[in-house]
Design a protein that fits this description.
It is a single chain. The protein is an alpha+beta fold and 242 residues long. 19% of the residues lie in helices and 44% in strands. The protein has 2 domains: 121 residues, Diaminopimelate Epimerase, Chain A, domain 1; 111 residues, Roll (Diaminopimelate Epimerase, Chain A, domain 1), CATH 3.10.310.10. It contains 4 helices and 17 strands. Strand 5 and strand 6 form a beta hairpin. The termini are close together. Bound molecules: 2,6-diaminopimelic acid (API). 2,6-diaminopimelic acid binds next to helix 2 and helix 4. Catalyzes the stereoinversion of LL-2,6-diaminopimelate (L,L-DAP) to meso-diaminopimelate (meso-DAP), a precursor of L-lysine and an essential component of the bacterial peptidoglycan.
Length: 242
């Protein structure tokens, strides 16, 4: 099969399109495997939809299906546009709800689904920005992978440490379903922005830098999160899945 490899600020994905919706958990594990597969944080499958430009399936590298993926939504929008599956401005359906995205060259902006604050967990706060994210505002170097992994399992959530420096937001994320720190996590950056904003550390817009150091922009408009940054189609390849 022919698949495309994308990097969205360092969060990387295998993407292909298909007519049939079926359980793709096993193929996600095969394709995302960094030794024997293409290698990626997640798999995105673009499917036809009656009402929206398309529907997608999103799988983490461990084969678990997730409700949403912020960086993946930007990569999927670019893939759909360049493969003439959707116009520049599109709407597509995820488990979390309908995502609006706009492609402008290699820059893609996504509007996330409505976010919710779930609860406080000590100095952490649990948000839903399409998927669950625990956030702590602290020195970015206080990120500890073992602590993050423990919290991930205790709360079945992604875990983020965020810091505001010189008006910019820096975020490190342990991603559920990748079971490691990733180079960027879109819904995690957005949850971190919400917490920093709530603490008066940022306004309604911010420049954000994930572990990869690639620059992204987040804004809150009419109480909806917009998330913009570069995506790169790094290569296209055929892969023998049998
Ligand atoms: N691993 C996440 C889904 C992908 C989120 C992340 N890659 C993003 O860009 O939002 C989860 O299972 O909750």
């Amino acid at each position: 099969m022919v698949v495309s490899k994308y990097s969205a600020s360092g969060n990387d994905f295998v993407i292909f399109h298909a007519f049939l919706k079926k359980d793709r958990s096993e193929i996600a594990k095969i394709l995302c495997d960094r030794q024997n597969g293409v290698g990626a944080d997640g798999l995105i499958v673009i499917l036809p939809h009656e009402q929206y430009d398309f529907e997608w399936q999103f799988y983490n590298a461990d084969g678990s299906e997730a409700e949403m993926c912020g960086n993946g939504s930007r990569a999927a929008a670019h893939y759909a546009y360049v493969n003439e599956l959707a116009p520049k401005k599109m709407q597509f359906l995820t488990i979390a709800g309908v995502i609006e995205a706009e492609v402008d060259g290699d820059i893609v902006e996504s509007q996330l689904t409505e976010h919710k604050i779930i609860k406080e967990v000590g100095e952490w706060k649990l948000f839903d920005t399409g998927v669950p994210h625990l956030v702590k505002i602290d020195d970015i170097n206080s990120f500890n992978i073992e602590e993050a992994r423990k919290l991930r399992y205790e709360h079945n959530a992604n875990v983020n440490v965020a810091e505001v420096k010189d008006g910019n937001l820096y975020v490190r994320t342990y991603e559920r379903g990748v079971e490691d720190e990733t180079l960027a996590c879109g819904t995690g950056m957005c949850a971190s922005f919400l917490f920093a904003r709530e603490q008066g550390l940022v306004g309604n817009e911010v420049t954000v830098y994930p572990k990869s150091g690639e620059e992204l922009h987040i804004k809150l408009k009419n109480n909806r999160l917009y998330f913009k940054g570069k995506v790169k189609n790094t290569f296209i390849t055929t892969f023998n899945v049998t």
